[in-house]
Known about the structure:
By secondary structure, this protein is α/β, with parallel strands linked by helices. Strands 1-8-7-6-5-4-3-2 form an eight-stranded parallel sheet.
Amino acid sequence: MSDAARALAQWGPAAHLASSLEPFPHEGALRDRLASNPFLMAPMAGVTDAAYRLMARAGGAALAYSEMVSATGICYGSEKTWELVDPDPAEPDLAVQLFGHDAAQMREAAAQVADRLGTRLALIDINMACPVPKVTRKGEGSALLDDPAHAAGLVRACVEGAAGRVPVTVKIRRGRRMGEEVAPGFACAMEQAGAAAVAVHGRFAEQLYHGKADWGCVARVADAVSVPVIGSGDVDGAQAAVRMLAEAGAAAVMVARGSYGDPWAFADARAVLAGKTPPERTAEERVAAFRCHVRLLAATGAHLKRARSLAGWYLRGISGASRLRDEAMHAEALGDYLAVADEAEDILGAADGGR
């Protein structure tokens, strides 16, 4: 048993998180595999490390994605790049999201990832959605929305590299510039090039993460293609995830920022979809989840400074939360973060004792 598996088994139950993780189905049509549990943890740069993915999987996500990974970095053998790709031994499988502009590099990267991960690779996704200038100025990410022919070539290259071992999917946005929706036609081109599914974020790249995502765009893409469409954007919890399935005709839904401090969003969405009322998550559970998440960061060898943002997500609403967040912002070692969790538990215990 890996350090992370032990940490999850020891600290997950107090947060009502699963201690054993269900693998993503590897047999059958992708649409059918998504239907068994249509709630996925979205790829997020700087966020979805192994600890975050394990929390999401323990919270009911069918599948978790890596941070976006540079095809160039893989081709040049960058160890830092491979650190983003390699799943922790506790992870049953992983969806790896690649980004790049050179077809030969994308082909080689897909082949290397498939070789290295073997049966633990669930799928390869190509990022055609990232709006960050340092990505788009190289013709990568959402810049590809302006060049569907080149983007289709990248899909074909990854399909060749994967050699039928896993599906190749793409993640796109509504369009690059405000008012210029290209997603339905672009998605058709990606399907023709061999994409097994299309994930659609309902914002224009120019919007970054501001304004409202248009779920109607997801529906228009779903009407335009025959492959499964995965909806993304403004899925802020379980209720929204289920609404997107119904309103947008999506085959599955990606939960991104809506999972901040809420690893249960996926299991709760499954409950709502089944017509059940999910349990109210207590402050005590959120503190326990913070403790578990910090332990997983340590167990997976991640930089513990990542726990600083976790404190703000998990401890919100607790009396003295701002002070606890400030303590976390100055924490360095594992014991410092666990002391914050201890203090939060003491606050909650004192509040219960005073009732």
